[in-house]
Design brief:
This is Ankyrin repeat protein. Helix 2 packs parallel to helix 4 (65-71). The chain has a single domain, classed as Alpha Horseshoe (Serine Threonine Protein Phosphatase 5, Tetratricopeptide repeat). It has helices at 4-18, 32-39, 42-50, 65-71, 75-93. The chain is built from five helices and no strands. The chain has 95 residues and is mostly helical. The N and C termini lie far apart (48 Å).
């Protein structure tokens, strides 16, 4: 059985190894943030958003990372993405 830390490590090292853009879609049209959201990898999701991953990008089926988190009942990721959006709106509403 793979531990969550191993999943985070594999996601991050694959990004570094192949220099994949953080919002680049894989073969199935999902981003690393989609994977992190589905798996409940909050630390990885936080790291990816800090690196500029697009939280609104949709896969081939029209799902955003937040929608995948909701579908898989990943409440920590859902809350994190909602807070991220709120903080983003607050920052740019002042401009």
């Amino acid at each position: 059985m793979i531990k969550k830390n191993e999943i985070s490590y594999k996601v991050i090292t694959s990004v570094r190894r192949y220099e994949t853009p953080y919002s680049n879609k894989a073969a199935r049209s999902i981003t690393l943030l989609h994977k992190a959201a589905w798996l409940g990898e909050k630390r990885t999701a936080k790291w990816l958003t800090e690196k500029g991953a697009d939280i609104d990008v949709k896969d081939n089926f029209g799902y955003t990372p937040k929608m995948l988190a909701e579908e898989n009942n990943q409440t920590e990721i859902i809350a994190f993405l909602e807070r991220f959006v709120l903080s983003y709106k607050l920052i740019f509403s002042d401009l």
